[in-house]
Amino acid sequence: KAGVTQTPRYLIKTRGQQVTLSCSPISGHRSVSWYQQTPGQGLQFLFEYFSETQRNKGNFPGRFSGRQFSNSRSEMNVSTLELGDSALYLCASSLEASGSEQFFGPGTRLTVL
Amino acid sequence: GENVEQHPSTLSVQEGDSAVIKCTYSDSASNYFPWYKQELGKRPQLIIDIRSNVGEKKDQRIAVTLNKTAKHFSLHITETQPEDSAVYFCAASTVGGGSNYKLTFGKGTLLTVNP
């Protein structure tokens, strides 16, 4: 099976712009979670989608949003980018939403100038 | 919400020695505790996990222990090798029973194994 894929792998944006990141889970996986990884804060949970529904959300401002499509692919959007949004954004998929192993994608490296 | 503290933030050992990384969690409802290894420039990968109905789990050179009363769990790596060098993350979550699946991670431990 193909692993979790994320596109694009690298992005450079300027403050105030918006960005959309994409995640394709492992075939058959219905749960997709998103994380922000920074050197100082580690891995921070953004949100989790299961069967097109957002089931859980972390402590991030409303500028961070996401969605999941019927084929389980997911996108996250960040509007009005700030310098502090520079990070590695990781998505992870799992078979179910109840404690099964999460498989991470390679991440999208976002740099905000 | 859940809060996970991880110590130490960096750990340097000699090849062949053991390494221990400790985590504490705050939410007594947490019942699933995975450990992830992230090599430089790569994605995190699950190396072992434990559920709250067991106190210890082993997989070759890796073991995890859980103390529910004290709300802490630890990763033990024996006979360390240079390829064990990576950042290790602990995490905690409440799973099952209709609860939502949200992993809360510790901030990571950079393990360096010196040849």
* Tally of alpha and pi helices of chain B: 0
Largest interface: A-B, 26 and 27 residues
N to C succession of SSEs of chain B: EEEEEEEEEEE
Biggest sheet overview of chain B: 6 strands, mixed
Order of helices and strands of chain A: EEEEEEEEEEE
Distance between the termini of chain A: 37 Å
Rg of Cα set of chain B:
14 Å
- Quote the distance from N terminus to C terminus of chain B: 41 Å
List low-confidence stretches of chain B.
Answer: none
* Beta-strand share of residues of chain B: over 45%
Task: Give a structural overview.
The complex is a heterodimer of chains A (113) and B (115). Chain A is mainly beta. Helix content of chain A is 0%, strand content 53%. Chain A is built from no helices and eleven strands. In chain A, the strands form two sheets. In chain A, strands 2, 4, 5, 6, 9, 10 and 11 form a seven-stranded mixed β-sheet that branches. In chain A, strands 1-3-8-7 form a four-stranded antiparallel β-sheet, with no helix packed on it. In chain A, a hairpin with a 2-residue loop joins strand 5 and strand 6. Helices cover 0% and strands 53% of the residues of chain B. Chain B is built from no helices and eleven strands. In chain B, strand 7 and strand 8 form a beta hairpin. Chain B is globular and about 45 Å long. Chain B starts with a strand and ends with a strand. Chains A and B meet through strand 4, strand 5 and strand 10 of A and strand 4, strand 5 and strand 10 of B.
